[in-house]
Amino acid sequence: MPLVVVGSLALDTIETPTARCENTLGGSAVYFAWAASYFTPVRLVGVVGEDWPAEYTQLLQSRGIDTQALEIRPGGRTFRWHGRYSEDLNSRETIEVHLNVMADFNPILPEPHRRAPFVFLANGSTHMQLRVLEQCSGAALVVADTMDLWIRTERPQLVQLLQRVGGLVLNDSEARLLTGETHLVRAGRKALELGPQFVVIKKGEHGAMFFSRHETYVLPAYPTENVVDPTGAGDSFAGAMLGYLAEQNNFEPTTLKQAMAYGILVASFTVEGFSLDQLRKTERSDIERRMDQYRRMLSF
Ligand code: AMP
């Protein structure tokens, strides 16, 4: 089933303890769309400036990602993010963020996009996420992501959004910031009270936690040794998760658990390179091979 994603398309500058990568392809919607495209047709909604290399659009199209609703703003500059990772790659600080064309992005979805049954509101302003939600009123499942910047600056809009989405995906520090709870199980439960039917808290190298009114569980990360750059892990986790749900065309509890596992596995490929470098070399068969190993790892 078609899956619509709206979020950032970025030129990222990334510093890890051993390397630096400037103005590379990034953005929440980019990682999400690529990861989801292993499973289902993806329609990308976003905005870039004149400095956006056309080859990046062609790269996304080469995976079958629909870029019809990608706006190229004349005279505008693309969203830029500069992040620096700690020695153990487990935390990062934002050195600079320039919203540029994202600052006043007002997405107007083409008619076929409005009818997509699955929608993901990737990281971007909550204001913009609400605008998209209004246009996709018939979707079977809408899931949102958010981050510290928006939790701090657009909390009232976020509370409004959470009353209207089916799922929320966020990382551990964002869950703590959103709910004021330091204990993650309590944070997950409290996030559920804000409205969504399920909440997923991503915990980086420690995997992800799932919360619904009926169940709570944790899935471990796939133990890859080769972590180069964690950027995009969360977005590609969400992309594979939603992509799988859209492929299966349901979001029953068993499907949701399988979808989480696919999210964890695709994220494990993302972190093995900068930008989309590793994902570009990854096929669905590689993901399935890792899934076999992951299942064996979890059975006892
Ligand atoms: P992740 O590592 O999965 O959290 O995603 C990192 C990506 O999110 C990077 O490629 C950034 O360009 C993008 N990003 C960082 N900050 C923001 C923001 N405030 N809004 C939207 N996207 C962002």
Summarize this structure as a short list of keywords or feature phrases.
binds adenosine monophosphate, four-stranded mixed sheet, alpha/beta
Query: In terms of per-residue confidence, which ranges show pLDDT below 50 for 5 or more consecutive residues?
Result: none
What is the spatial order of strands in the main beta sheet? 5-4-1-8-9-10-11-12-13
Average pLDDT across residues? 96
The run of helices and strands is EEEHEHEEEHEHEHHEHHEEEHHH
Structural description of this entry:
This protein is of the alpha/beta class and 300 residues long. The chain has helices spanning 28-36, 54-62, 111-114, 126-135, 148-153, 155-162, 172-179, 184-193, 233-248, 253-270, 284-298; strands at residues 3-6, 10-15, 20-26, 42-48, 66-72, 79-85, 92-98, 118-121, 141-145, 167-171, 198-202, 208-212, 216-219. A hairpin with a 3-residue loop joins strand 12 (208-212) and strand 13 (216-219). Helix 1 (28-36) packs parallel to helix 9. It is globular and about 55 Å long. The two termini are 35 Å apart.
Write a compact overview of the structure shown:
38% of the residues lie in helices and 24% in strands.
Please outline the helices and strands:
Blueprint: E1 3-6, E2 10-15, E3 20-26, H1 28-36, E4 42-48, H2 54-62, E5 66-72, E6 79-85, E7 92-98, H3 111-114, E8 118-121, H4 126-135, E9 141-145, H5 148-153, H6 155-162, E10 167-171, H7 172-179, H8 184-193, E11 198-202, E12 208-212, E13 216-219, H9 233-248, H10 253-270, H11 284-298
Parallel strand pairs: 1-4, 1-8, 2-6, 4-5, 8-9, 9-10, 10-11
Antiparallel strand pairs: 2-3, 6-7, 11-12, 12-13
The protein binds adenosine monophosphate (AMP).
Residues 8, 10, 12, 26-28, 81, 97, 123-124, 147, 149, 231-235 line the site of adenosine monophosphate.
